[in-house]
């Protein structure tokens, strides 16, 4: 007699719990500690997501150096946007790592601190090497994990696209990666610049590149209006590519306009000198 | 001599049977497969052939599992014997305290080495199938040095089991091993700008604590660097044997002073 009573009571309590579970979000809405639609990673990791994502990027950098963490060698600037590459020009980062050879030599000549330190340097890798060509595919899972953990990590998208485009020779996939980045970070101009560079330099698609740089320009202006200040160097890079495309089209009025804007920034960088040369011609 | 060997073999077999009866190894093995199997199926951004991240995760799992098995198996050798008072008939058999200690140590060592061997075999087959390189020299050397690590950790945990309660022993050994892995080589540098007393303490820990990081060849295996010079490997294995010997001598001294 007691067993059916217990089962009925348990069923009723469970039904009440389920009804409350359905009712509470409707009644209290945003006042509940967790809002509807928050991802599982957001709930578990919170603000630590970006830190973990950056750690993944460091891990990829470690893989780039053959498993060794080289603190004073960052490849942040190696992605296409910063290199000011143009079709037919030599890659701006050839010989980028020459300093490492001297650094490694210096390290091997450094006196050993003690017995344990000496054994440790014999056991663990002290020097580093760079992955080349197809081997760069080993970096991709870490970048992939970095953007899965934090889709707002623009840096991870830029580096991943750079590796896929330059080392793995797959610019179309790099464009897909950047498009994913743009979907997740619609206000970011850097992703547009990199996409434009790949369209321009790898896919030889000037109209697509023009569209990317135009969007980058618009996003840069939106960012300036929203925050009251903006990155001048970023605008200079956008203007550099817009100038190049304007010169390709023989659009002298656009070229003059861009040059005037570059002058107004008041930055005398390599990009500005390049723009100046393009405007003179 | 023959009797002593028979006693050692019996104690070894007992530890080995206990480990596999508890099914810890199978749980760890299944967990490893559950973690790795979905990862092998993922081709991030359509890029196939990347395998070093899988090696890294697999070797990390092996190291963590092996350390936990070695510490827990060694730490479990004596406390239950004292608790259930089974140590008395065993010592009355007669088995000398030295033989009992050596047998318990050998048993825990064989058990953890056999479990680690299974993990390495599975990893070797997995990495051979994935990368096409079957049991390279650096892989065999990594296993040999891992055995050295197990020797040291087993002796350390066995010593701890005489001084601490089982949970405290597990925690202290875990902290020592994890701590030395993380900051073992950086201790003097980390305390460089601190007061002299702290620097002296750090120096003492640096000199006396077990340098378990010497046995870690994961980076060489994952990134296909060559093996370590054989003189260095032998020196590191010798370090493990000497350190384990010191721990066992200390454990023997404590065991002899213990009233059973």
Summarize the structure.
Chain A is an all-alpha fold and 281 residues long. In chain A, 66% of the residues lie in helices and 0% in strands.
Layout of strands and helices, then pairs:
The complex is a heterodimer of chains A (281) and B (260).
Chain A: H1 2-28, H2 40-45, H3 48-64, H4 98-109, H5 115-123, H6 140-149, H7 154-167, H8 171-184, H9 189-201, H10 206-227, H11 232-248, H12 252-265, H13 270-280
Chain B: H1 2-22, H2 24-40, H3 52-75, H4 79-83, H5 87-91, H6 97-131, H7 137-163, H8 166-183, H9 187-190, H10 196-208, H11 218-222, H12 230-257
Structural features, described:
The complex is a heterodimer of chains A (281) and B (260). Chain A is mainly α and 281 residues long. Among the domains of chain A are: 44-90 and 130-212, Serine Threonine Protein Phosphatase 5, Tetratricopeptide repeat (Alpha Horseshoe), CATH 1.25.40.10; 231-281. Chain A contains 13 helices and no strands. Chain A has helices at 2-28, 40-45, 48-64, 98-109, 115-123, 140-149, 154-167, 171-184, 189-201, 206-227, 232-248, 252-265, 270-280. In chain A, helix 6 (140-149) packs antiparallel against helix 7 (154-167) and helix 10 (206-227) runs antiparallel to helix 11 (232-248). Chain A is extended and about 100 Å long. The N and C termini of chain A lie far apart (99 Å). Residues 90-109 of chain A have low confidence and may be disordered. Chain B is mainly alpha-helical. Chain B has one domain (2-257). Chain B has 12 helices and no strands. Chain B has helices at 2-22, 24-40, 52-75, 79-83, 87-91, 97-131, 137-163, 166-183, 187-190, 196-208, 218-222, 230-257. In chain B, helix 3 (52-75) packs antiparallel against helix 6 (97-131) and helix 6 packs antiparallel against helix 12. The chains are: A mainly alpha (281), B mainly alpha (260). Chains A and B meet through helix 5, helix 6 and helix 8 of A and helix 11 and helix 12 of B.
